[in-house]
Each structure stands twice: as structure tokens, then as C-alpha cells.
Amino acid sequence: MGLINPDFRTLPELFTSVFSHFKGQSDQAPIARKINGAYVPISYDSLAEDCRQLAAFLKEKGIESGDRVAILSENRPSWYLADMAILSLGAIDVPLYPSLPPNQIEYILNNCGAKGIIVSNMLQLGKILSIWPKLNDLNLVIVMNKLDEPIEDVIELSQAKSEGKKILEAAPWQLDGIKTGPDDVATIIYTSGTTGLPKGVMLTHRNLCENVKSCSTVIRLDETDSSLSFLPLSHAYERTGGYYLMFACGARIYLAESIETISLNIMEAKPTIIFTVPRLFDRMKANMLKAVAKEGGLKEKIFYWAVSTGEKYHNQLAEGKVSPIVNVQHKLADKLVYHKLREKFGGRLRYFVSGGAALPQKTGEFFQSIGITILEGFGLTETSPVTNVNRPENVKFGTVGPPVKNVEVRIAQDGEILLKGPNIMKGYWKDDEATAEVIKDGWFYTGDIGEIDADGYLKITDRKKHIIVTSGGKNIAPLPIENLILESPYVDQTMVVGEKRPFLIALIVPDFQKLSEFASEHQITAGSNKELIEAKEVIKVYEQLLRTVSRQLATHEKVRKFLLVEEAFSIENALMTPTLKLKRKEISKKYNDEIDKLYNALNMVYNTE
Fold first, then answer.
1. Residue 141: which of 232, 234, 56, 57 has the closest Cα?
2. Does the keyword Lipid metabolism apply (predicted)?
3. Within a domain: residue 2?
4. How far is CA 481 from the centre of its chain?
5. CATH number at residue 123
6. 5 falls within a domain
7. Alpha-carbon span 431 to 171, nearest angstrom
8. 16 and 40: one domain?
9. Residue 470 phi, psi dihedral angles, 5° rounding
């Protein structure tokens, strides 16, 4: 159980040892993708051969150790192939989010001096062709899909492999003697950043390999395990956990067709582990409760009884003793409810791993009560990325768990979380100043505020940059307040503002599906979402919500007013980063006039009182 080769020091060593271990075993496959309605596995042998052929072609085209080659693609088998081939040459890969617009791609490719790029399809190729004249170092473009007609200086991946095969037949020694050291840079991942230009995080082979080794002691995997992959591979979280860790343990990766097909793909792939983000749980919970409400009657009562029984069982388990009555009830609930729910997740799921953003405590407790374990973790691109994760045998919701092996955590005097370990990045590409700001005396300054409990579990309270300082000088962490607001089924997204203001205001994106149901129940007629959020009865729903939330907050933390927003914050409208974090400054800027109006109206009230 665990790592196939526990001694790898570089990623090419990891790949080579796993390929050797499975050589000739046609029934074993690291990756499976959907073709004509069914999952088709790709064997280790065919992936290894493709990797050698592509690497030989890249080397022939002048890609050498230390050169940067970008990957601009959605998750697909060729992403893994491109990564392996680039790294096997000692070159550095630069993953790009497929959602990035051409101007941002141009900035990154010029900043890192990319000599080559491997793109997925015509859409992504079109972006590159539009900016190619402005790309100083780029001279090699490979496209994974077939071209309808030849394009000058662009080569199809199949042709690149075919040429690579010929090169190896003529010169079998082509790939011999390439040396990669643990401290060589493996990848430069550009953090999208909620402010300013993206910075290139340099992660070495040691950073990534040590992080994989640390994770393998917490999340124990072997050849019988499999995952369903849908988070972007351009993100460090999916790359380390969902790719390198899975591959290192001989587990299989099933590629989801899209975010929309996850439920169907889970049933088909029957994964044992899924790496995901909190937003997925909110959707799953909402769909579950909607389906239960639709069935109504006895089935609905049994479901909520099972949830309540699960809560009791896990509370008593945490205290060390489960009463015989609760134990019997829990077994019955398992037969009637939990077992059926587990089948909807394929029947083999051991746990979800949640990262990328804070998991609301109540969400974690809800899934635990129905027999589904979520392991929440924490990390940053700069830390390769995993630093903390809850342990399967002792999950504490509301925390991100204790540190993984080889990672030290310390809380600075101002509450900032500091980290140290072999997983800490080499620095930011061509930005010594930014590097010196975050790495001091070997400690990485995360910019997150947190605390460590008596059991060594870390709790994140907020981002240092997000702390709101009111005009009265009060320091307020918005995240806990936002999480309370998000507990309402009528809220899809929220952001609290109040910097240099006398009090807090919340921007709320309603859950319009839930709101429409409310409107039809209360005979509210609205032709559009805009009319819906202007309806008096709807406004009362949110007024009541904020009154309920305010009872749980200190006076200076209370949200005095809200603004209902019609358009969701998304990557497409540039109000979210590709990793689904709110771009707070951009959101504030977009709604600045409406926010000002609310404050001015309220100030008048406050001033006349």
C-alpha cells in the first residue's frame, strides 16, 4: 500500500519507476477517458511510449534542460503526456488555465520566455495565433486536436509523436544522459492573484516530490484506488493530489467529461477518492435536499431522521462512547438512507478531499451525518501545495487539520500563518523583491490569519489582505461573516465590504432557482431576475436573514445593509480567479456606485438619529 517507489527525488524518476513497475501489465492503466459513451483505459506501456516519442521530438526541436514550455489545455490524456515529456527533458512546464484571455497568456509567455507551447484545440490555438507576433521567444506550437487544414509552423501532436518515433528508431540514444536534479525547477505556475499581475511560482522537483510523499502518509492509496478528475490540472492542488499522488501509488485517474456530467461520471467511474472544492458540496447538498423535498411524505421524514441520527452518532463518537440505542438507529439509518446515497457516489467512495477555499463547517457536518467523509486541507501554490489536512481517523470540521509530514506551522504575533518545509517554493520567477516579501529566515509568510488548537489542528480565520478596518478602527475578518450568510439556501455568493466605512454591507448573489420557487409559492410575479430582487417580499427574506446572522455577531461585525446582485461573480466576468476565489477589489470597483448610495442613505439616517 502507498508509493510504488518511496525513493524518487525528481518527477522523471517517479514516472520511470512507475512505468517499470507496470511494464507489460495490460490490465493496469493510469488514466481512463470517455470514448463513445464508455470509459476506455490508457495503459502504462502506451503512455510511456508516447512520452518517449514526444520528448524525442521536443529535443530535436531544440527544447533543452531549463527551457520553458507552456501547456494550454483542458484536462485530457494529452495534458499528462505533455507534462511528462517536458519534465523528462529537464525542461520546465508552465501550465495555463484554458479560461485565460489572449492578453494574459501573452504576458505569461513573455514573462517566462516560453520557447514552446502545447495547446488543446482550435479555440486555444486561435488565442496563440492572435498574439504570436508579440511573443519574443516562442518558436514551437503543437496542437493536440487534428487540424482541418495545415497551419504554417503549427504541428499536430500525432505528427510530433510520429516524428519522435522515427528519431528514436534512427538514434535510440537520443534521450540518454539527461540529468535532472531535485533542486531544478520543474514548473512555473502563475498565480492568478486577486490583485495585480500574476506571479510565476517556481516549484522544484524536490518541492513536488516531497509533497507527494507527505500526502501519501495521510491519504493512503494503492492500485485498487481511483479518482474522478475535474479540477483544472493547471492548478497545483489537482496536479499534486489528483495527478502525481495518484500516479505514484498506481491508482487510476478517470477524467470527467465536464462539470455538468460529474454525477453521471461518478456512477460510471466508481471512484474511491475525489479531490474537489467546497462549491461542489453546496451544489450536491442543494440537489439532494431538492430531490428529497420532491418525494415528500414518509421518504422525506426518514431522510431527515437519518441526518439527525447521523449527527447524534458522530457527536457521541467524538466524545468516545456511542449509546446502544443510537448505535442500532445508526445501523437502521445506514440500511434505509446512507447506503442508497453511497450508491449514488458509485458505491466505493472512501472520502472527498476538499481544498482551494474554506469548507463551511455545517456542510462538512451534514455530509458526515449521511456517512460521507470530507477531508478538508490547506495549502498554497507556493507550498506545492498541501501543508495541512484532516486525518480520516479524526476529522475536525472548521479546521484544516494538522500539518503533513515535514511541514512546520507557526503563528506570528499578528496571527499570520507561517510555514516551513521542503515543499516551500524556490521563489517567484524574476521577482526577487516579491520573493523576499514572503520568504524570511526560511519561513513562508502565507498572508492567511489562523490559530492552532490544543490538538495541533489549524483553523484559518481569514486572509490578512481581506481584513476590513472600519472608519472606527475595528479590524473585522469578513470570511466567518460570509460563511454565516452562505448557510442560507437563498444565497449563492456573498461578499462583505466596509473598509474605512462606519459599518458593514453585504453584496449578495441570490440562488435564483430557490428564489423562483419562493416567488411561485408566494404568488410573486416577476418577469426577470432584476424584477425578482426588487420585489418587497423578496427583500424581506434577506432582511430576516441578516437579522438572524447578526444575532451571532459582535456589534461591530453586524451587517447593516445589503445589495442584491443580479449577475453571479464568475471567471468569465473577471470577478473570480480561475481557482474560484473572489476578486474583491474588482467586485468593489464594479458595484462602487451602488455601495456608495447605500452608505450615503444610511449615513443620513445615522446622522439624524
1. 57
2. yes
3. no
4. 22
5. 3.40.50.12780
6. no
7. 40
8. yes
9. -75, 170
The answer to whether the beta carbons of residues 91 and 64 sit under 8 Å apart is yes
Pick from 408, 443, 464: which residue ends a domain? 464
Q: How far apart are CA 576 and CA 583, in angstroms?
A: 5
Same domain, 322 and 234: no
* pLDDT for 1 beyond 60: yes
Q: Are residues 451 and 496 in the same domain?
A: no
| Same-domain pairing of 411 and 484 | no
Q: What does the alpha-carbon distance between residue 446 and residue 438 come to, in Å, rounded to a whole number?
A: 7
Predicted confidence at residue 196, as pLDDT, reads: 64
Alpha-carbon distance of 280 to 266, in angstroms, equals: 13
* Residue 23 confidence (pLDDT): 97
Range of the domain at 331: 276-347+350-464
Of 210, 204, 200, 201, give the one whose Cα is nearest residue 186: 204
* Three cell numbers written together for 91: 525542461
pTM over 0.85: yes
132 grid coordinates: 504570436
333 lies in a domain? Answer: yes
What confidence tier does 571 reach under pLDDT thresholds 50, 70, 90? confident
pLDDT tier at 607, thresholds 50, 70, 90 = very low
Do the domain assignments include residue 573?
yes
pLDDT greater than 80 at residue 11: yes
Measure the CA–CA gap between 135 and 94, rounded to whole angstroms. 15
φ, ψ for residue 481, nearest 5 deg = -70, -45
Asked if the model's pLDDT at residue 195 lies above 60, the reply is no
3-state secondary structure of 480: helix
Query: For residue 474, what is the DSSP state?
Result: -
User: What is the C-alpha separation between 512 and 137, in angstroms, rounded?
Assistant: 47
- Computed on alpha carbons and rounded to an integer, the radius of gyration of the chain in Å comes to 26
Q: How many domains does the chain have?
A: 3
Say if residue 93 is exposed, middle or buried (CB neighbours under 10 Å; 0-12, 13-18, 19+). Answer: buried
DSSP 569: P
Q: Are residues 322 and 458 in the same domain?
A: yes
Higher pLDDT, 481 or 358: 481
What gap in Å lies between CA 460 and CA 239, rounded to an integer? 23
Q: Residues 56, 157: one domain?
A: yes
